[in-house]
Amino acid sequence: MIMNGLQNISEIKKCPVQYVLAINDTLNVISGKWKLPILASILYGNYRYKDIQANIDKITPRMLSKELKELELNGVITRNVYDSTPVRIEYKMTESGKNILTVLDAMVDWGVSHRKSTFKHSD
Known about the structure:
The chain is built from 6 helices and 2 strands. It has helices at 17-30, 35-43, 49-55, 61-73, 95-98, 100-121, and strands at 77-82, 88-93.
């Protein structure tokens, strides 16, 4: 049987388990409609809840709170409470979270390229 030009099944290379686990870990942290826009907003200087919410069109307060909690639990952001009047709460990227910028940049590059090739073929 020929599969994708391969002569037999023994020629198929297996994906390393660590590679699959790493992809699953990444997807678990950034999955969903809102996490990447939230991270991008924080990366570009929107640290307070209201600023993040204003920066992301159509996100509900409940969803923003839920996603911020999940990102904090996953060690991507920290929630800092400042003893002031009124109390000030800011979200910042952890060192691990800052490294997501390379992922976001790669996704933007791919998205721009994909959009260009898709629209070019649809003419």
